[in-house]
Design a protein that fits this description.
globular, 4 helices
């Protein structure tokens, strides 16, 4: 997207910022034995914001970026002790199914 000179979708920087917050909260969870709630909350918010982008833009580059944010969010959820099924369920409850966005 950037290589072709296309502007990033407006919510993408916010989603990436939430993802970075989730990673920092994950580090605190792992290093300091804190509760995983903050890491999970930021990861799910990142996925929600990224997925929202698909309501306005559904080109390949955007879909790939959204998929990467959603995948990273699932990885963070898994790192907080959630199993795969629970992480995917939490993601879909917070952000919906990416494949269904834009088909409503």
């Amino acid at each position: 997207m950037l290589r072709r000179g296309e502007p990033a979708p407006q919510l993408l920087p916010d989603a990436i910022l939430d993802l970075s917050r989730a990673v920092r909260a994950l580090a605190a969870y792992l290093e300091e034995s804190k509760e995983p709630d903050e890491a999970r909350r930021f990861a799910l918010e990142a996925a929600r914001r990224a997925t929202e982008i698909l309501r306005k833009r559904h080109d390949l580059a955007t879909s790939v970026l959204v998929g990467q944010v959603r995948s990273a969010a699932v990885d963070i959820l898994r790192s907080t002790g959630m199993d795969q099924a629970s992480a995917l369920q939490a993601l879909e409850e917070a952000a919906g199914r990416a494949s269904e966005i834009g088909q409503e």
